[in-house]
Amino acid sequence: MSIDGDFEVDDFGDIIDQNLFKLAKKNNKKENFDWENDDIEENIKDRLAKGTVMIRAYLDLSSLWSMVVSLIYLTCFIAIFFLLDYLFYIEDSNGTRSPKRKRFVNRLKNIVSKSYSDAALIVRNSSDTKRLAKLIFEYLRPSDEAKFLTLNDFIPFFSNQDQAQRAFNIFDVDRNGDISKFEIINIIISIYKEKDDIEKSMRDSGLALKKLNLIMKFLSIIIIGLIGMAMLTEGYSIVMISLGTVWASTLFAISGIITMLKILFSYSFLIHLMLEIESKLVEMLYMLQNLVL
What we know:
The chain is mainly α.
């Protein structure tokens, strides 16, 4: 602009350009037209529309061949799923399925089998526990008139006094220095009931784990179907396939982690507790065998 207030040609041209730019931007506001990022958005849309070489080749097929290729892909996915399920899972004697860790499971089975004794098969139900308690009391008491057992009654049947004291402390709950017939019956019945409750809880956890495994399978099959159907679409098929693959692998990982945690907790706490209970019963049965012999 000049000093006397007259407009110069360059200033007038700049004002027209600015007004035209604002007017064009205002008219295209409803279309969300971005003047600065227009080229970038067009490039992104072109890439998404074109897809990968595999998807472009797949879209060029006829409807019949595209259906055949889709069935082949779905069959491969399902075959891989069941193959992984077979390799990483094993069905135990109770019908439940758990992760296949052969060395880990075999070691635990060896530990449990070594801790068990053939004599432990005598105790199968509550009546057997009562019969065993009566037998122990009858063989340990010095005479038919004796109604209580003392530490001196245990010592002749053990190699040293420490073992006799340990066996005596198992039944002497009130720590009064003597053991009655009812104390022996109550101790053996309580041990049997505790063992039975642990076995029931383990069976229930196995059933819950089996249902969880079926749910994971169902969700994985749905995801595999979504991955197969995503191949029929354009644009976002790459993203859908990637997300579906990550989701399926995450479900596999979560299923294995939950199953493995269940086994670790079971063998760390429940089996360890059962072994402690069985060791007490085995000590009683060994004592009974020594008495009979």
